[in-house]
Amino acid sequence: MKSIKLSLLAYFLIITTAYSQAFYESYDWDKTPQYNSNNYANENLVAAKDKITTEFYFTTDQQFVEFYLEHKAYYLNSEEAIEDYNKIYLPYDSDSELMVNKARVITPSGKIIDLDDSKILTATDDETERTYKYFAFEGIEKGSFIEYMYVVKRSPSYSGKRVSFQNEYINKNVEFDLYAPSNLIFKFKSYNGLKDIETDTIIETKNHWSLKLSEVKKLDNETQALYSANRQFIIYALDSNTANNTKDITSYSSVAQNLYDFYHAELSKKTKKALINLIKDLKIKDDADFDTKIKTIENYIKTTIYAAEYSSAKLSDLETIIKDKVASDKGLLKLYIALFNELNIKQDMVITCSREFMRFDKDFEANIYLQDILIYFPKTKKYLAPNENDSRYGFPPGYLTDTYGLFIKQVKVGDFVSAVGKIKTIKPVDASLSKDNMVIGVNFDTEDISTTNITLSRAMSGYYGMFIHPFINLVKPELKKELVEGFAKNLNESVTINDSKIDNDNPDLFGIKPIIFNVDFTSDAFVEKAGNKYLFNVGALIGSQMELYQESERVLPLENEFKRTYERTINIKIPKGYTIANLEDINFDNEYIEKGKTILSFKSFYELNDNVLKITADEYYKTNHIPVAIYEDYRRVINSAADFNKVTLVLVKE
């Protein structure tokens, strides 16, 4: 759920007096800007000013609103920076009112070019029909500053907001202010080394919290780092109202109860009949096993019900959804829960947020963390992502796992039914369940050793199989053929395909058996003649591998989407009369052990029986979180696969 709001206006309306003036009415930029480009000569882009202010305010007619101000200035010292910032979009929509908007360009010579109203444009998105406004800057030269300021009057958002202060460029003169009526108390938390918000103890007419920094250092986006989650930011949320002694306003307990009441509301007889008829149509038998019932429902909903991008009462009405086969996100979740309840399948609703965005903080309650829905089945300890069509039962989106979430569980006391919300860990899927397994057979042509006949069998399960296995029946035969042959052609475009097929190509087998792609091909790309020797690039048979380089010291931790395993077995029939001179080059053994358990590993080794060489190259990552302290260990393991990819065996005559 992208936004979950509490209705608190009733708490606030006991205020009897309004402020005489909102903060923005007395705020303006300097008539003569004082930005000095000498400080930034070596930078392509710098935020010379970054000010954000928000005020929760009662108007004279007792309307509760929010005034939001942004005042920013950027130094643009490259053509790329000018291209990126010659348009600035404003957070404007039909429910908001633009109170102040102005912008200007300060050229390197000091000339000030004010944007008139003709350069503050309105446009409409053709697809969403959403109207938006933007500043269209002109006259920007390399070395110019652009400066803009706007104030938006909008419906207040106070149950959990994030404000970020760190970017891939330097932020100078950073300011954040939040004002609120004197009876409303907000809570704040700073993340990733940002200093804490300060409380103004001098102002008496309203509450004021602020943050002021002369500079926030730029943060580079490193490989496999979750940049958004690692930036410095604050989160704030309304906590209490001293006027009526209301505390813990932004409380997960209220969210849990409200969501439970909505999604588990008592159904009419007509609706229940429609659900029972749907279950009959799906041929779900009473004696079907637990997983089969869940998978049947999920497959039906994700392949039959169209997920609308907007919401309405009609799109969350179960009878209408079953009849018209169109639903909003809310409607889809209602349908899942209603069907599961009808089949007595116990489940908990789980709300979390993607690790790509930020890490769920179990100690700070704010609705900004409540963005994505999962359904948890205590019996199997598995999850289902109801609003993610590319995900399947048992394999929720990886970034929604290995984090915390709000679990909403039903509780019964006699005839009384309620809900309890509890923060718990969303455990990731085990590495052994997401496997990419390759079995390769190699035979050298008896007439010409430089030509190889190769069989490749590639079995994919878990997250690796999920990209295609549940949808394989929707793929046209000619595209299936192209897909399978692609596994060989990805090794080398010049291969000649002899045969190909897919095993376990039934979508119902996803999560039970791996989908297997089999291809038989011939190639002269892997062996090179060198005098009386042959150089066989055996490592190339596993495909190109990611390689990590780090010229500077690592700053950010790494985050993998999911735990994973790679298994490769290469069986090589050595040509008669030849031997391999450098078998030891096959051997790699790199691992990282934590608390007695190996969590990162790449190992390759060989067995030689007569003229058959069997190479095993296995690799696994049993953790998603790689702190900077073990980055070099992770890099060593990752690079082992890349090093194996370069292994060339030397065949010499006996």
Q: Could you give the topology of this structure?
A:
Layout: H1 9-12, E1 45-58, E2 64-76, H2 79-85, E3 87-90, E4 97-106, E5 112-114, E6 120-124, E7 131-136, E8 144-154, E9 161-164, E10 170-181, E11 184-191, E12 198-199, E13 206-216, H3 227-230, E14 233-241, H4 252-263, H5 269-281, H6 290-304, E15 306-307, H7 318-324, E16 326-327, H8 329-342, E17 348-352, E18 372-377, E19 382-384, E20 403-413, E21 416-426, E22 435-444, E23 452-460, H9 463-466, H10 477-489, E24 496-503, E25 515-523, E26 527-530, E27 533-536, E28 558-559, E29 564-573, E30 578-580, E31 588-594, E32 597-609, E33 612-621, E34 625-626, H11 631-645, E35 649-653
Parallel strand pairs: 1-10, 15-16, 22-29
Antiparallel strand pairs: 1-2, 2-8, 3-7, 4-5, 4-8, 6-7, 9-14, 10-13, 11-14, 12-13, 17-18, 17-20, 18-19, 20-21, 22-23, 23-25, 24-25, 26-27, 27-35, 28-34, 29-33, 30-35, 31-32, 32-33
Helix pairs in contact: 6-8
